[in-house]
Amino acid sequence: MLKFWMAPGGLHIEPAEPRDARDMARIHALSFYRGWPSAEFESFLADRACLTYVACDARRRMAGFALIRIAADEAELLTIAVDPKWRGKRVGRALMDAAFADLMLSPARRMFLEVDEQNVPAIRLYKRLGFEAISTRKGYYPRPDGSAATALVMARDLG
Ligand SMILES: CC(C)(COP(=O)(O)OP(=O)(O)OC[C@H]1O[C@@H](n2cnc3c(N)ncnc32)[C@H](O)[C@@H]1OP(=O)(O)O)[C@@H](O)C(=O)NCCC(=O)NCCS
User: Fold this and answer.
1) How far is residue 121's CA from residue 101's CA, in Å, rounded to a whole number?
2) CB under 6 Å to ligand 1: residues?
3) Residue 12 belongs to what H/E stretch?
4) What 3-state class would DSSP assign to 85?
5) How many other CB atoms are there within 10 angstroms of residue 140's CB atom?
6) How many CA atoms does the CB half-sphere of 89 hold within 13 Å?
7) Which of 14, 33, 40, 126 does the annotation list as catalytic?
8) What does the pLDDT read at residue 123?
9) Which residues span the domain enclosing 56?
10) What is the CATH number of the domain that holds 93?
11) How many distinct structural domains can be found in the chain?
12) CB–CB of 55/63 below 8 Å?
C-alpha cells in the first residue's frame, strides 16, 4: 500500500527506504551532539519492529525524519530530527501525525520517549501532541563539557 501524507512547505511524509540511511545520519548529526552513523540507521531501516518516516520534497530531498520502535503494546520514539533550515514550519508535527496514523493500526497502545529536560522546542512539540512527563532520568545525555543532562520521560496513550 502506498503511504503518503501532506506536510507544510510543499513537503510530504512517506515511509523511509533503505537508501535514506545516509540522509538520516546527516540530519541527525546536524541535530545532536553525538550523531549516529549511517550504518546504525541502515539497521533500524531493516528492522521490522521499526517505523520510520521521512519528510521530503518532490525530488525526495529530505527535510526531516522520525524513527519509532514497537515492542508488544508499546511504541518508543527513538529519535526525531528536522534539518535546521526547515525547523519551526510544523514538519516535526507532520512527521509525528503520520506516525500516529500508522500506530493506530498497530498493537501499540501507549507511546514513550525521552528528551533532554532543557530541549524546549522538542518538549513543546511533545506537549502539543498530548505527551505528559512521567519521570526523569538523571545523567542521561552526555554534554560537550563533560557534564550530563537529565532526561524527561514522556508518554501518551494511542487510540
Ligand atoms: C524538535 C524538532 C524535531 C521540532 O521540529 P519542528 O519541525 O521544528 O517543529 P514544528 O514546527 O513541527 O513545531 C511543533 C511545535 O513544537 C513547538 N516548537 C517547535 N520549535 C520550537 C521552538 N524553537 N521554540 C519553542 N517551541 C517550538 C511548538 O509548540 C510548535 O507548535 P506551534 O507551532 O503550533 O506552536 C526540531 O526542533 C529538531 O530537529 N530539533 C533537534 C533535534 C531534537 O532535539 N529532537 C528531539 C529529540 S528528543
Assistant:
1) 23
2) 31, 80-82, 87-93, 115, 119-122, 124-125, 128
3) strand 12-15
4) helix
5) 16
6) 17
7) 126
8) 98
9) 5-157
10) 3.40.630.30
11) 1
12) yes
Q: Is 74 a catalytic residue?
A: no
Q: What are the residue ranges in the chain where pLDDT is below 70?
A: 1
Nearest CA to ligand 1 atom 41: 31
In this predicted structure, what is the pLDDT of residue 1? 65
Burial tier of 143 (Cβ tally within 10 Å: 0-12, 13-18, 19+): exposed
Cell matching residue 126 = 511533545
13-42 b/e (C-beta count within 10 Å ≥ 16 → b)? bbebeeebbebbbbbbeebeeeebebeebb
Q: pTM of the entire structure?
A: 0.96
| Ligand 1 atom nearest to 27, measured from its CA | 39
Which sign, positive or negative, has the C-alpha torsion 150, 92, 158, 127?
positive
Query: 142: number of CA atoms within 13 Å, CB side?
Result: 5
